[in-house]
Specification:
The complex is a heterodimer.
Chain A (H helix, E strand, L loop, with lengths): L2 H4 L7 E6 L3 H10 L7 E5 L2 E5 L1 H5 L8 H7 L4 E4 L2 H16 L6 E4 L2 E5 L1 H6 L3 H15 L5 E6 L1 H10 L8 H5 L14 H16 L5 H5 L3 H20 L16 E10 L2 H21 L2 E12 L4 E7 L9 H18 L10 E13 L13 H17 L5 E5 L9 E5 L2 E2 L21 E8 L1 E3 L20 E3 L7 H8 L18 E14 L7 E11 L6 E9 L2 E8 L1
Parallel strand pairs in A: 2-4
Antiparallel strand pairs in A: 1-6, 1-7, 2-3, 5-6, 8-11, 9-10, 9-11, 10-14, 12-13, 15-21, 16-17, 17-18, 18-19, 19-20, 20-21
Helix pairs in contact in A: 2-5, 5-7, 13-14
Chain B lengths: L1 H17 L5 H19 L9 E2 L13 E2 L3 E5 L2 H13 L4 E4 L6 H7 L6 E4 L6 H11 L2 E4 L7 H14 L2 E5 L7 E13 L1 E2 L1 E14 L6 E7 L4 H5 L15 E3 L1
Parallel strand pairs in B: 3-7, 3-8, 4-5, 4-6, 6-7
Antiparallel strand pairs in B: 1-2, 8-10, 10-11, 11-12
Helix pairs in contact in B: 1-2, 5-6
Classes of the chains: A alpha+beta, B alpha/beta.
């Protein structure tokens, strides 16, 4: 069955690879403002990750320990590793290459892939294209690069490393004498790289040292022994991979900007602008035949601060009323910023307002839920909540998400309904020492003071070593100050509070039945929100003698505070 | 007529099979199962009507007819019970608004299974409370109402009528004149806490149930916050919040 196919060449994509040698170190040196003659290296963990040409000449190698590298070259500049910086800096190279060809794929920072056919025709020949690319990158981005052209990914990458052009159909012969270790250069992600490194080490132990040896094995045996990694490696080594480069399209954001003639400070001034800007965004989206599911509202203040918030808009339910809906959001956000109620920098007059559409999708192809569209009930609920937001203001309706933390209050993050945001603390982090489950059903918005007393009636203290001065025996809670009966009882001399009608009204003491703790929580000592607390769980017999009330109290700066009630 | 005959002939047969088994407990369970089968066949349990929202099995003794749409349920003395009542419905797709409950522990709500995606918190409605509640009743499936609300009795009547019309359930903390069902926690007992050691683990709650549609007041013991091994290991998002160990019912 497969006999006729054996000799047939696989139609593969001819591609150009532009490679900047030692990219992490080049990017780091550009950012640090070092010249190309300085010996420099990027350190990641304990080992050197990338080495500049000058350092390599002095004998520094990839994978060396820091001390060894400094021994080889005492004037070596050690720079930190930063993947974000590598990606960011490489954007300049990609932009330079895009001036020569229409679309490029950034395979990883340091490596660009470009389909060759059309571009080579445009520039006359493949040599012409390579020359144009190298010149443009050197001029615009200011770094040296190498270009290789071949069939298949691995051949093109290796051609770029050798700075040669491989003729059509010659990729297999070019790759055959190379060691199997070169397969690693065709990997683009860390996980894949580890898998391939494992494969390479097995191949070397089996005595297969060159890619030619490896590709001489029958396909079925390779797949049977090495699975999908083996199949991938075989395809790569033969130059038969057919996946075309995934080109990115340079597309501008859909957004509008409004610059105030005079810095705006009053809310009335902004209401009109909000409506105007929302209408312009709507028109811009319509012109691009798109819809968006989120809108980023940004503003600049006279002090130079940038304020940014993202709001959700649901696409399906509101195609007609979009501008009205958005105008409300913009107005609320601006009011928040101007009045200083929203958390952020000091309120200041605004100089410019920007609206940018995010998650843009073509009109008519909005994706709703996996099973069917947005249900009628969901749309109804959203509309009802928006009406309440209209009544009470944006902060009147909150959406809640769970976040990481140790106390019940810290573990909840709330945002205005419809506003997008990421909880500042991750749930997946370990959070050692958090208060154990079950979670209390009532968590006081503001902690209230309570009296935790020992048998003699003096306050219970917790010392530095978390020893309790005496077992807690009595607890006095605060009464509602409007409760006349409690007030009268409080005034009575037997309550122990003689004179003075001010201050909190205390209920009669309740006996503690059982307790646990103290559990220390010492948090954020390095910041302004430092806190040092010791928590107790207390179970008391209630006033009616039937119910048992369980409380979570915390000792904070010498005072017991009621944090939560397990009711 | 035909159905009745079928039921009458089926039920004694089922019981007769079980008589052979000796122990008291299994006989009681079998009798209850037979009764439940009859109820569900006749549609007397309310589930067949499609008017009830889902309710946790452990709370079935508290509200045997389920969380009926258009009703007002008042709960006194326990926020946990309040959350447990709506948890299953929220998990199965109902929208929930919590109005005037600034102190509710959202973590407890999550642990009981309330879906935060479909939950809106309106902590301080202030003087707009009637309008806010009205808007919520229009859009949400369950509206939970807190204690400190500026509501007159007229407002309450009007809201209850609106809930009936819209098919929305109002679950209230404290009391509500004209509530269909009034639940009050009479006794509660915590386990797991010692003298300086342990932690709160499990609790029995005796709930007294009375109301318009419930004949005389009756008492039910439910276990809230049932402790299980998965919670101890941490990391599980939802647990079976109300244990299915309803200890039994007794007349008042």
């Amino acid at each position: 069955m497969s006999a006729p196919l054996r000799g047939a060449a696989v139609a593969t994509v001819r591609r150009v690879v532009l490679w900047v040698p030692d990219w992490p170190v080049v990017a780091a040196m550009t950012q640090a403002g070092l010249g190309a003659h300085t010996p420099a290296a990027v350190l990641h963990g304990k080992a050197i990750l990338a080495v500049s040409a000058a350092a390599r000449a002095a004998g520094v190698r990839r994978g060396m320990r820091k001390r060894l590298a400094q021994q080889a070259c005492p004037e070596l500049e050690i720079l930190p590793h930063d993947e974000g910086r590598d990606t960011r800096e490489f954007e300049a190279v990609a932009a330079a290459a895009e001036r020569v060809v229409a679309g490029v794929e950034v395979s990883r920072p340091g490596l660009l892939m470009i389909p060759s056919e059309g571009a080579a025709r445009f520039h006359g020949s493949e040599e012409g294209l390579a020359e144009a690319l190298v010149t443009r990158v050197a001029e615009d981005a200011g770094c040296e690069s190498a270009v290789g052209i071949a069939d298949g990914l691995l051949a093109a990458v290796m051609a770029a490393r050798a700075n040669v052009l491989i003729e059509r159909g010659q990729s297999h012969d070019f790759l055959a004498p190379l060691p199997v270790g070169t397969l690693v250069h065709a990997t683009m992600e860390r996980g894949q790289r580890t898998e391939v490194e494992g494969l390479v080490s097995v191949l070397a132990r089996l005595g297969l040292t060159t890619l030619g040896d490896f590709t001489a094995l029958p396909t079925a045996d390779v797949v049977a022994r090495f699975g999908h990694v083996g199949a991938w490696a075989r395809r790569m080594a033969r130059g038969e991979d057919v996946a075309p480069p995934v080109l990115r399209r340079a597309e501008g954001d859909i957004g509008v900007e409004y610059v105030f003639e005079d810095p705006a400070q009053r809310v009335e001034q902004l209401a009109l602008v909000a409506a105007h800007v929302a209408e312009r965004l709507d028109a811009a989206l319509l012109a691009a035949a798109s819809r968006c599911s989120r809108v980023r509202i940004g503003a600049r203040t006279v002090t130079g601060d940038e304020l940014v918030r993202v709001w959700r808009t649901d696409v399906g339910a509101r195609s007609g009323a979009f501008s009205k809906h958005m105008a409300d959001r913009v107005r609320w956000q601006l009011e928040g910023w101007l009045s200083g109620t929203a958390a952020g920098p000091q309120p200041a007059p605004l100089t410019a307002l920007m609206l940018t559409a995010e998650d843009v999708v073509p009109l008519g192809s909005e994706q709703a839920f996996l099973w069917g569209g947005t249900s009628g009930a969901d749309a109804r609920a959203h509309r009802a909540l928006e009406r309440v937001q209209g009544l009470l203001g944006p902060q009147g309706v909150l959406a809640v998400t769970e976040q990481g933390g140790r106390t019940p209050r810290d573990r909840v993050h709330s945002l205005a309904w419809g506003q997008e945001g990421v909880p500042p603390r991750q749930v997946s982090h370990p959070w050692p020492g958090r208060i154990p489950d079950p979670a209390p059903a009532t968590v006081l918005a503001v902690p209230l003071e309570v009296h935790v007393l020992d048998a003699g009636g003096s306050p219970v203290r917790v010392d530095r070593r978390l020893a309790v001065s005496a077992p807690p025996t009595w607890v006095r809670l605060q009464a509602d100050p409007r409760d006349k009966v409690a007030r009268a009882a409080h005034r009575h001399p037997s309550s122990g509070h003689v004179g003075g009608d001010d201050g909190p009204v205390w209920k009669p003491p309740l006996p503690v039945e059982a307790w646990a703790g103290p559990w220390p929580i010492v948090e954020r000592w390095w910041s302004g929100q430092a806190s040092r607390r010791a928590f107790l769980q207390l179970a008391m017999r209630g006033e009616d003698g039937q119910t048992e009330v369980a409380l979570l109290v915390a000792l904070h700066e010498g005072r017991w505070m009621l944090e939560a009630v397990y009711d | 007529m035909f159905e009745w005959r079928a039921v009458l002939s089926a039920a004694p047969q089922a019981i007769a099979q079980e008589v052979t088994v000796e122990t008291q407990g299994t006989r009681l369970a079998a009798a209850r199962a037979a009764l439940r089968a009859v109820e569900s066949r006749l549609g007397a349990d309310g589930k067949a009507e499609g008017l009830a929202l889902a309710l946790d099995e452990g709370l079935a003794p508290v509200l045997p007819r389920g969380l009926l749409r258009g009703q007002v349920i008042a709960v006194e003395g326990s926020t946990s019970l309040l959350l447990a009542l709506v948890a299953r419905a929220s998990k199965e797709g109902a929208w929930v608004a919590m109005v005037g409950m600034p102190h509710v522990g959202m973590l407890a709500a999550v642990r009981r299974g309330i879906d935060l995606e479909r939950l809106a918190l309106i902590p301080y409605p202030g003087v707009q409370a009637p309008a806010t509640l009205g808007a919520c009743l229009d859009g949400m499936d369950i509206v939970m109402v807190g204690q400190a609300m500026v509501l007159s009795d007229t407002d309450r009547r009007r809201l209850a009528a609106r809930a009936r019309e819209r098919g929305c359930v109002i679950v209230v903390t404290g009391s509500w004149t004209g509530a269909h069902t009034q639940l009050a926690v009479e006794k509660s007992r915590w386990r797991g806490l010692g003298a300086g050691e342990g932690r709160l683990r499990e609790r029995d709650v005796t709930v007294a149930i009375c109301g318009r549609s419930v004949g005389s007041a009756r008492r039910v013991v439910v276990i809230l916050d049932a402790d299980d091994a998965r919670v101890r290991s941490g990391g599980i998002v939802r647990r079976e919040s109300v244990g299915d160990r309803a200890l039994g019912t007794g007349g008042a």
